[in-house]
Amino acid sequence: MLLGATNYPARLDAALIRPGRLQQRIPVLPPATEAEVEAVFRYYLRDELPPIEIAKLIRFAIGATPAAIEGWVKEGRNLARSENRSLTAADLLRVMLPPDNRSPADVRTTAIHEVGHAVVAHRLGFPVHHVSIIREGETGGITRTGVATLVPTLERLRDQVTVALGGRAADIAFGNGPNTGAADDLARATSLLLDAYERQGLGATLVASPNFVIRHPDLIKSVDDELKRLLDRAIIILEDNRSAVMELVQRLIDERVLSGAAVAEVLASGAGDTHVSQAA
Fold it and tell me: Does the global pTM surpass 0.90?
């Protein structure tokens, strides 16, 4: 029996995966729920920690791969051995949560930005997996969402762009204004609209070319106008959910990680807020 593993199945040669060769594919995805994260911890920890201790770790590991969890367990064991004692949940948290020297103001700014993405995504019908303000390298926070369809229409693409602009919208509506943390979001939002107009035939023309080098000024202005319109749309969504946004920001500051279920629960209980539809 021959087993292979790859993160890029689409790049495999057809002769390699034809019937009779590496024909069967088994997707191995990261744990998607708290129960799955707990099961991975239990597998690597065996009987070293009781369930009540493992429960302290789960919310900080949402979105982590089994390989990352295995690495944390090994580092935690090494830390405990170096001090001649048994492994504790505190050992694992020390390796899972990197040192954070950000000021409280910067932490709050990051929380506002990430909650903006999460609230706009939820209100526009996109699944929210988790929101985190745990630092990872140069990244101060992250909001992981899913997509509703793999073949979106122009209107659904505009919804995706609105979600990408949700962080900047929150910076404007609840923070100190636009900041440098939205660079990647703006690049993604711009790319989505340019691809729609230049490659996917969703604009005023059906001419498609993936290799535009010099873009017509009218196209740049059109994309810029639409980005500004969708940014305003995101601000309206957040303003309509103001109390829920502020509650989520504080919870994210306190807990550092929120599950999608926690985000949905707060938004569902926002009786004083206006729920918006998916329509632009």
Answer: no
